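Aim 2, interim progress: modelling of the pyridoxal-5'-phosphate-bound target.
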Amino acid sequence: MADTKWGEIYKELGAKPIINAIGSVTMLGGSTPIEEVKEAMDQADQAYIPLMELEERAGKAIADMVDVPAVYVTSGAGSALALASAALMAGDDDKRIEQLPDTTGMKNQILIQTRQRYWYDRCLEVAGAKLVNFGTEDGTTREDLEQAIGPDTAAVHYYAVEQSPDVKILPLEDIIEIAHGKGVPVTVDAAGQIYPLELFGKYVRMGADFQCIAAKYLGATQSVGLALGTEEMIRKISKQSFIGYEGRRVRGIGRPHKVDRQEIVGAVAAVRHWMTTNHEERLASIEVICQTMMGPLKGIPGVDVVMMDNIIGHQPFGLQVRIDASVTGLTAQEVVVKLKEGDPPIWTRVREGEDFIILHAFGLSKGEDKIVGERIAELLR
Ligand SMILES: *Cc1c(COP(=O)(O)O)cnc(C)c1O
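Predicted structure of the complex, ligand included:
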């Protein structure tokens, strides 16, 4: 890495580059495309291609690799959720496709467990659908779902979090059984459920009609995502696509969700790499980065560092740095602020009211692991 040039392209604009020890966060750039993806994207520059055909072929290639019936490359997982909700309401009806986000005359409710409300569920509403809770904060029963399904129910949504399962929610198996029993489709947000590999596409293989994946976690550009699903669901999603404006002369809500041809082939390259790479080596190298970050933090009074050992999902390992402010003189929140004020700024994560900082390897460039560990140690010593 040419250190003298670090971040120069941003500095020229008067913007300040940062060291990202938070992980894959959209606000900071989300991901750095891997070499295989950049190469594919460069090759795509050579020729133009009808995007309807490219979407179909790319989707087929990814579907075969992941073992699901069909795939559509979208403008991020958030876009996959938005297009899916539109597809559930409008189906194959072009009049309805052009009517959204006005949902008059359509089933427009998407059911979600009260305990599963989450930050990105908003993406399901942008096409005009309304989220409706079922169950309570204390849990969800089969009866809760059976009673919640009504004439306006367009789908039941489920948020998959295999790295920290919630035993009080109604499991996806039950949701699929009950919803499908009443002819209602099931959607799943599985944006980060990509490792172990059997998780990749698992929910569609279980019977869900749709699930999304965020390609930002796969080494693609963060501006792409994947809609996985049944042939029917993916066909309906494709009709919501930005391409429809020219390709079908139908103006759906998807126009602002544009994807480059470069990004589409990049997404294929990212999935191919993910499905064939040596994940033991990947995990081992991330563990080494975390250990390097941890080195300078060991043995500091009032500081307790542990390596997290979770490898499920998209962000393996990471460090939890617990700070006893009565010993170090600084709270975790104060450390995070000071790190951001440093040169270069280092971004880390702390939650309000918590006494520990979380560090992840995902967004660190070569050599930054050591810098992060040392800068935190300097503040706390
Ligand atoms: C990142 C993420 C999203 C949004 O994905 P984008 O590709 O950034 O639009 C949705 N759901 C979950 C669980 C995510 O982690």
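The domain at 8-30+278-380 is CATH 3.90.1150.180 (Aspartate Aminotransferase, domain 1). The chain has two domains: 8-30+278-380, 35-276.
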